[in-house]
Design goal:
Layout (H helix, E strand, L loop, with lengths): L11 H52 L39 E3 L8 E4 L15 E2 L3
Antiparallel strand pairs: 1-2, 2-3
Length: about 140
């Protein structure tokens, strides 16, 4: 004969307490993790813009002029004889961490050229995760 008290499962109250604890932990941890991902994307974009700006300067030193388009850093444009690239390995490096194309403004408003990531929303302006990231900041 089996003892009925040894086959006892969880009560409804025990289940509610466990679910409430999981919900509280998720509510505390999730915002912290989401904030870190956003900050990591912004820092990654800053490093990427610096790398692209350095590649543009190297392009200018070797060819005697600035590229007309960021793709010129990956593929040799016609009529540019002293091109010794690629200055950037892949076209995917010409996108920001959110998958948006980086923007090259030539001539720039803040120097010889401006390289811009429009942030998470892919549009000029914005705040927080959607704020613009530039090579002159």
């Amino acid at each position: 004969m089996s003892n009925p008290s040894s086959n006892r499962g969880f009560t409804l109250i025990e289940m509610i307490v466990v679910i409430a604890l999981i919900a509280v932990i998720a509510a505390v941890v999730a915002p912290n993790l989401l904030g870190k991902a956003s900050e990591a994307n912004r820092k990654s974009a800053l490093v990427q813009l610096e790398k692209i700006a350095n590649a543009i300067e190297l392009y200018r030193l070797e060819t005697g002029r600035y590229p007309e388009d960021l793709v010129d850093l990956v593929e040799q444009p016609q009529g540019v004889e002293r091109w010794k690239g690629p200055y950037v390995r892949k076209k995917s490096q010409l996108q920001d961490p959110w998958g948006n194309e980086l923007v090259l403004k030539m001539p720039g408003e803040h120097g010889a050229f401006d390289v811009i990531s429009y942030g998470g929303d892919g549009r000029a302006g914005g705040e927080g995760d959607a704020a613009d990231i530039t090579n002159w900041d």
